Amino acid sequence: MPSGPRQAGRIPSTRDPSARPRAEDASNDGDTVDVTGGNGQPQPDENHPADHTPASPAPDPEHDPDHASERDQGHPDKPGPDDTADRTGHEHRSLAHAGIARTDPPPERPKEPGGGILMGRPFGVPVYVAPSWFLVAALITWVFGGQLDRVLPELGALRYLVSLFFAVAFYASVLVHELAHTIAALRFKLPVRRIQLQFFGGVSEIEKEAETPGREFVLAFVGPLLSLVLAGLFYLALKPVEPGTVPGVLLAGLMISNLIVAIFNLLPGLPLDGGRMLRAVVWKITGRPMAGTVAAAWVGRALAVSVLIGLPLLNQSGALGGDRDVSGMDTVTDALLAAILAAIIWTGAGNSLRMARLREHLPDLRARTLTRRAVPVQSDTPLSEGLRRANAAGARALVVVDADGTPLSLVREAAIVGIPEHRRPWVPVSELAQDLTDGMRVSAELSGEELLDTLRATPATEYLVVENTGEIYGVLSAADVERAFVKAMARPS
């Protein structure tokens, strides 16, 4: 779910205190990537490699007014028009005076939600029952119990026990529907995060898109197909059963409910399976997955409006098999049900559109572009001295290294902000550092979804970015990635 420094080359060992990291000359490349509303770092340029003449110390605008405007344009700590809004109530000053950045400490990354009660792991995929399921189960028990009272009045209060069994069996059918999607996704080597049974059905959370429109179509179609198969099986099982009995009523109800699930999911609008099938068709015709998503999302929104208006009218007219003589309470119930369904479809269509836009812009998230320039310091270096070196080099991160220049830990930005300026000469950087783990070392070549997956696997506030050769490239802040992530979602297609 991120301001960046200019490109940094190999960071030298601190055995030479005067050594400073190498950087690109910003005057040679005016193209920048804006990831936080302020000025970002230059784009990588093959004609101007990062490893060239060492950068001279950046002038301090407080002591050199002639260079103040130039520093404001090039220093990544200087907020831009949009950056100010992101840092309301916080003064943004130079590194040596205020720490790495005078911002709120980056929020801790939330743990992955479970999604309810874990029921099992078929095919290795966790299946959760959301709390909302109990609400809809109670509603189905009440409604189906009322129907049983008219068909089998001799059951008495036992009709609610039979109705509860129907609710559980119906959602077992929904689970089969979702397992069809899951098996197809695993067959296409697409990771499935979880299956969740919730209010108004279930969802299979597939973490990646299908690679071709054909696979997308198959992935979407197998769910309604299994629901149709189940409806057929319940119909065949109903044949030898005597009508007007408990088994007969249950089998008939499951047949009809699975038929409704199949037909409803085949409607051609996102987020329904039919919408994904429509997306695959448009994708195949145009060659652009985004075009398919836009078309299916807008059809889904039109479908939401149709459900909101048409479902109550159909119920009142008796076209859906209901009684024409409906009460005021029935009218309110129909309108409420239609509003909930319409809201789910409309929201799902919008979310599908936003996620597609995000995936389209994910390649813009590159570790090289987002990485902050860093300076190496040894563990006993006072914080004030480390900040002075970083500010002189125009860097915004500190890497703790040993005597041989091997990185040991990263100084946490949030910890620096919490140390008053008068105490910084007496606090060694090692007290503010987080030890490096294997997951906190990321390649400078990572980008897009691969970068996000790598960071998600090892939650942290900062990561050490290294070249393929093992040389230090800089430090990647999770906050920078999150801000870039938000900007990618907001950027128009």
Entry keywords:
493 residues, alpha/beta, four-stranded mixed β-sheet, 11 strands
Structural account:
The protein has 493 residues and is of the alpha/beta class. Helices cover 47% and strands 10% of the residues. The protein has 15 helices and 11 strands. The protein has helices at 68-74, 81-86, 95-98, 131-151, 158-187, 213-238, 246-265, 273-286, 289-317, 328-361, 367-370, 383-393, 413-417, 448-457, 478-490, and strands at 117-120, 127-129, 192-198, 201-206, 375-378, 398-401, 407-411, 433-435, 441-443, 462-466, 472-477. A 4-stranded mixed sheet has the order 1-2-3-4. Strand 6 (398-401) and strand 7 (407-411) form a beta hairpin. Helix 6 (213-238) runs antiparallel to helix 7 and helix 6 runs antiparallel to helix 8 (273-286). The longest helix has 34 residues, at 328-361. The protein is elongated and about 85 Å long.
